[in-house]
Amino acid sequence: MSGYTKINYTETEQAADAMHLLREPLGCRRVGVTVTQCAPNWSNEVHDHADDGHEEVYVLITGQATVRIDDEDVPMESGDALRIPSGATRQIQNGDAVSAFVLVSAPDIDPSAPNPDDWILTGFQG
Questions:
Q1: What are the residue ranges spanned by the domains of the chain?
Q2: Which of 11, 56, 70, 103 is 20 to 30 A from 126, comparing alpha carbons?
Q3: Which Pfam family name is an example for this entry (predicted)?
């Protein structure tokens, strides 16, 4: 047995108004994955991951959008990938057309910690 897991994100329960959280359905232990389908003019809440130490990567699969990081607007177009450190505030601000992101989150693990395999499962992880 290979040990892989395959799902179709459209068959998972939708969280919030645009997000499909895939960590649990896939059985991921160290990475969160979310597919976000953004309706025109959609935006999520401003947030950070300072408390859980998760950095994130946003990959825009289709469309155009802006990601506000701290006080800077970062325009994105299809194919762009953006890494966001845990302490930075972030917000997706979609434009006039539908867009789709894959969001990946993972903890910053201290290899000198007593249990470096442990990571904090609080906050939002796909």
A1: 14-34+45-107
A2: 70
A3: Cupin_2
DSSP string, 8-72: -GGGSPEETTTEEE-HHHHT-SS-EEEEEEEPTT-B---B--TTTTEEEEEEEEESEEEEEETTE
Domain made up of 14-34+45-107: CATH architecture: Sandwich (2.60)
User: In whole angstroms, how large is the CA radius of gyration of the chain?
Assistant: 15
What confidence category does residue 122 fall into, taking pLDDT thresholds of 50, 70 and 90? very low
Q: Measured between alpha carbons, how far is 49 from 114 in angstroms, rounded to an integer?
A: 22
Pairwise CA distance, residues 13 & 77, whole Å: 27
pLDDT digit string, tens, across residues 22-62 = 999 999 988 999 999 999 999 999 999 998 888 999 999 99
State the residue for tokens 């997706």: 92
Token duo for residue 34:
């979310």
d(CA 4, CA 103): 20
Mean pLDDT of the chain: 88
Lowest mean pLDDT among 17-21, 100-104, 105-109: 105-109
